[in-house]
Amino acid sequence: MDPEKIVAQELMFWQVALYIHTYVLKDDIQTDDYSDDDEVAGFSLWTLPSKNFRGIWESLILEQDLKNHLARYCLAALLFSKMDVDSNLVSCNRLILLHGPPGTGKTSLCKGLSQKMAIQLQDEYARALLFEVHTQALFSKFFSESAKLVGKTFSRIKSCAADKATLVFVLIDEVESLTSSREAALSGSEPSDAVRVVNAVLTQVDALRRFPNIFMMTTSNMTGAIDAAFVDRADIKQFIGPPPKPARRSILSSAVKELARAQIVDTFCPEKEAQELDRLAEVTDGFSGRLLRKLPFLTFSKLASTYDKQPLPSSEFLSEMVGVAGTERIVRGELASAEEKLRDNRGR
């Protein structure tokens, strides 16, 4: 929900159940030590809660109640596993698929969700881990090496999950790359060994679902490229699109507030700048959350020559952001046109 709307609500003390979680943030991260210097690691391993994910969950401003919906699902799925509910009678795969255009916060949402669950469930699990699987790294130029890397990656995940006191989250970003590789292999444009590599990955993904303390999260920029059988396995298939106008306004407001805190712009009051904020939210229609968060920096870089260690006027800064947003829209349009022409040329 919109943080500003939450603050505005008034609740009596008997309407609230207060839970306070104390925790210590970890700063350790491991990578797969199998890959050579010129190869990308097969996975990254994060100990949760992690300093690297601090504030991610709170910074994500999405459709109303979407974050709470995913959090409730995660808690319910892990509860079904803990209570040993027969999955043959009640299907629950503990697998979500977040899909949508790039830059909308899918990967950040997965990391934020794992961080939040690790904190909330620390009384039930001694530790929590997040494996971030790098799908592109699983396909080496030498297929025999790829198979070995696939086996090593998922064996490490299973090894950690063997300890039932460990809560394991598995994030597979850009999962469509697995399916697209299989389709290319089956069509004959890739060596037949590629089929075995991709099938090995999908088999390992299925095997992970048998561990009650594993929760899987996948993301995709191209839902249509994902195998239908894999999509069917997901309990939740959630589209994450560009933020609507109220969310854009909140994102931009929070970004300018942060610049005011850092004394880069002067005192910022959203109520006083409501008209300019509304205008800015209007002209950024269709922008991803990533681009919205980048606009303040792009604006400041344009005004940097006028910055003399004195905060910039917030009204002037917001007006300049409107112009920068217009420029970004033109650039995005030119890039889209160029990509369309390139696809047309390839199709001829």
TrEMBL record:
GO terms for biological process: meiotic recombination checkpoint signaling; reciprocal meiotic recombination. One of its GO terms (cellular component) is nucleus. GO terms for molecular function: ATP binding; ATP hydrolysis activity. The keyword ATP-binding applies. Residues 92-244 form the AAA+ ATPase domain. It comes from the Eukaryota. Keywords: ATP-binding, Meiosis, Nucleotide-binding. PANTHER family: PACHYTENE CHECKPOINT PROTEIN 2, PACHYTENE CHECKPOINT PROTEIN 2 HOMOLOG. Belongs to the AAA ATPase family. PCH2 subfamily. This is AAA+ ATPase domain-containing protein. It comes from Rhodosorus marinus.
